[in-house]
Each structure stands twice: as structure tokens, then as C-alpha cells.
Amino acid sequence: MKKILISCIEASADLLTAALIEKIPDWRNRFHFYGLGGKHLKALGISVLEDMTPQSTMGFLEPLLKLPFYFKKLNLIKQVLVKEKPDALWVVDAQGFHLPLIRFAKQKLNLPVIYFISPQSWQWGKAEEALKFSKDIDLIIDVFP
């Protein structure tokens, strides 16, 4: 059974990830999912170490005010990666939180990284920036072309 650490820190990410997991054939016998998530992942019986969905932010100022909280949780999930040694890291949306986590997982632990609902290339300005972002990602599962 493959251990997959999931990082869903927003309510919509939790909802969409739970819906996607339910589509994976025989997932309960093939994968052990655990990590950061919310009520939808919990409802599937997935071990949620921390529910950050109530702390979701939008815009520019709101996330800045919660930086200490996010740094604390980022360090927590890095420690879990080191201790648990999952077979892969699966992050969902929230590139501001996940880009440092992806770099850590890939460069320090050489873990395969899955990104669901990745940032669209227009957010990065140029194709080169999107390619730089994607170099540490093994599989991108997106909802848009």
C-alpha cells in the first residue's frame, strides 16, 4: 500500500480532492492517504493531521496577517514528511503555501510530487516561469486545459 501525504489547506481543495479520491478504483486497498485536509477528506476516513480550511485566506493583506500561522504549519508538515517518509506528496492549489513545501520534498527528500489544481501559466507571466515552477513536480492533475 502506497502512503501519500496530502496537503489541502483550503475548503475548495478539500472538496475537490475528496471527489477525485472517490474516483480512484479500489483506493482504500491501494493507498493510505493522510495529511492536511478538512471535513470532506475526514468523511472518507482519511487521517487528517490538521484542518487548516477554517484559516483559508484570499487577497494580499489577509495572507500576510497569517504568515506566522502558515510558517508554523509549513514546518509541521515538513517534519511529518521527514518522519513518515511517504511514497509521494500530493499538494492541492494554494501555491504560496505549497511551493516551498514542494521544493523541500523534492530537493531534500527526493519525493515524487503530485500537484492538483496547479497555478495556470498566466499567473507566472511567462512560459519560462511556468517551466521553472514545474521542474520539481512529477505529475500535474489540473481542472482546466
Strand-residue proportion: 15-25%
Q: Which structural class best describes the helix and strand composition?
A: alpha/beta
Number of DSSP helical runs: 7
Instruction: Please list the strands of the largest sheet in the order they lie side by side.
Output: 3-2-1-4-5-6
What is the helix fraction of residues, given as a range?
40-55%
Sequence of secondary-structure elements: EHHEHEHHEHEHE
End-to-end CA span? 31 Å
Point out poorly predicted stretches.
Answer: none
Q: Let me know the largest β-sheet.
A: 6 strands, parallel
Shape: globular
Number of strands: 6
Mean pLDDT: 89
* Rg computed from alpha carbons, rounded to a whole number of angstroms: 15 Å
Defining traits:
single chain, 6 strands, globular, 6-stranded parallel β-sheet, alpha/beta, 145 residues, 7 helices
Write the layout of secondary structure elements.
Elements lengths: L1 E7 L2 H13 L3 H4 E6 L2 H5 L3 E4 L10 H5 L1 H18 L3 E5 L2 H14 L4 E4 L10 H8 L4 E3 L4
Parallel strand pairs: 1-2, 1-4, 2-3, 4-5, 5-6
Structure overview:
- With 145 residues, the protein is α/β, with parallel strands linked by helices.
- Helix content is 46%, strand content 20%.
- The protein is built from seven helices and six strands; from the N terminus they run βααβαβααβαβαβ.
- The longest helix is centred in the middle third of the chain and has 18 residues, at 67-84.
- The mean pLDDT is 89.
Summary, kept brief:
The chain is α/β, with parallel strands linked by helices.
